[in-house]
Design a protein that fits this description.
alpha+beta, 86 residues, 5-stranded antiparallel β-sheet
């Protein structure tokens, strides 16, 4: 509760990174570069807290290489994901 769910790149790009809950209760991470690429991952398991997920996304979107940094930050926090689109 109270955790930020979406982030925009501060370096002037149209990059968007956020997380959402599906109707079934699963958590998904969404990345959109604003031009051509949209990627969606499902967070595996229930061990990922909203706070840890928000922290990982906040660090990743502040980077110029958002997707590789996202993978690194999720790995540091032991948050497993599976790619479902993109």
């Amino acid at each position: 509760m109270g955790q930020q769910a979406s982030f925009h790149a501060p370096h002037g790009g149209a990059d968007f990174l956020g997380w959402r809950k599906t109707r079934a209760g699963a958590t998904e991470i969404v990345y959109d570069d604003g031009v051509t690429r949209r990627m969606v991952w499902r967070v595996a398991g229930l061990e990922a807290s909203e706070a840890r997920l928000s922290d990982a996304l906040r660090v990743a979107v502040g980077s110029h290489r958002i997707v590789p940094t996202l993978y690194d930050e999720l790995k540091k926090r032991a948050i497993a994901i599976e790619k479902i689109a993109g």
